[in-house]
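Narrative of accomplishments. A recurring question from our advisory board has been how the design workflow behaves on a single, concrete structure rather than in aggregate. To address it, we present the structure tokens for one chain from the evaluation set, followed by the sequence designed for it. No filtering or post-editing was applied between the two.
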């Protein structure tokens, strides 16, 4: 496929030309890779993952196996592909990381350190997905500022803050063009997330359609930031294509499109499936994680510095999710 000239109609610069994506089998990668290939051309996006991924990620363009802790292979791939940009998505999500703190530190922190070293060696730009998990219980919870207290209490969050700082360090010391987003919970119909605290906001749509009810592991009244995947994909490209002279807060920007509690998403689903019912069976581990994260982020810096402008609010997302999931079910049922 030929690259698109101006993907967002916003006068894109096309700073990125040859892109390597790590963790391409994850929830973001599965959608980001085809999205990038549409914009930059199939052959200009190399997808990598620890295991083979069937479908468009491995079949729609170049694909290689890569464990992000293997610096030698990583470096060879960047060199032979002539990549100018590394979108480093590989990582273990929050709840799963709590079950394997040592290994997740190795992958989340060690993998990012390796990616930064490879970026430095080859003069590539690097995107790092930070998270609302980079905040903790002592962070102001409402309208959480861009620059504030960051003392997370999860191993996932500790690695995220460390990586944000490492990205700043590599930019300052070596001039690596590092840029990052603090993602909220991401909701998508293509791929299920695995091992996150915000995953309920995806599962609820699947079960609303298949069972008409959902038992939620997060308690009512627990607010977290969220964003629909199309807005997250657009934000990655917009940030990476942004004029570097405007980027004050490179690592990493608060981004969010909505903040809701489980009863709010249930109410939104009820507008389209009136018989839908939510009940609760709270998981203390994920509830504690959720409570340690902000209720809502202040995204002013992202808006002012590179034009972050999400399109989907809760009801628009719900309508789209339910329609897309219905179409998917019909397609698989033949
Ligand atoms: C998770 O729940 O672990 C992720 C995140 C907010 O980083 N979705």
């Amino acid at each position: 496929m030929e690259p698109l000239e101006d993907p967002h109609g916003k006068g894109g610069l096309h700073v990125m030309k040859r892109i390597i994506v790590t963790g391409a089998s994850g929830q973001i990668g599965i959608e980001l890779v085809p999205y990038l290939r549409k914009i930059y051309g199939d052959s200009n996006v190399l997808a990598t993952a620890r295991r083979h991924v069937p479908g468009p990620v491995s079949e729609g363009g170049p694909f290689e196996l890569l464990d992000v802790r293997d610096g030698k292979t990583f470096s060879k791939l960047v060199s032979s592909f002539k990549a100018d940009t590394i979108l480093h998505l590989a990582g273990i999500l929050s709840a799963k990381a709590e079950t394997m703190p040592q290994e997740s530190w190795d992958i989340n922190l060690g993998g990012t350190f390796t990616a930064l070293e490879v970026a430095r060696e080859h003069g590539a730009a690097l995107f790092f997905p930070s998270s609302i998990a980079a905040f903790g219980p002592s962070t102001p919870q409402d309208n959480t500022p861009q620059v504030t207290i960051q003392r997370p209490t999860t191993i996932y969050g500790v690695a995220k803050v460390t990586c944000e700082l490492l990205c700043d360090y590599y930019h300052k010391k070596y001039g690596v063009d590092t840029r990052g987003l603090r993602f909220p919970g991401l909701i998508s119909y293509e791929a299920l997330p695995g091992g996150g605290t915000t995953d309920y906001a995806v599962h609820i749509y699947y079960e609303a359609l298949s069972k008409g009810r959902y038992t939620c592991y997060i308690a009512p009244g627990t607010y977290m930031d969220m964003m629909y995947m199309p807005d997250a994909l657009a934000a990655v490209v917009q940030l990476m294509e942004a004029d570097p002279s405007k980027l004050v807060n490179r690592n990493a920007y608060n981004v969010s499109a909505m903040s809701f509690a489980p009863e709010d998403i249930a109410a939104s689903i009820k507008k389209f499936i009136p018989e839908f019912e939510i009940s609760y069976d709270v998981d203390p581990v994920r509830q504690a994680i959720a409570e340690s994260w902000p209720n809502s982020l202040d995204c002013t810096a992202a808006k002012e510095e590179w034009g972050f402008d999400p399109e989907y609010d809760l009801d628009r997302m719900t309508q789209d999710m339910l329609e897309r999931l219905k179409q998917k079910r019909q397609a698989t049922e033949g």
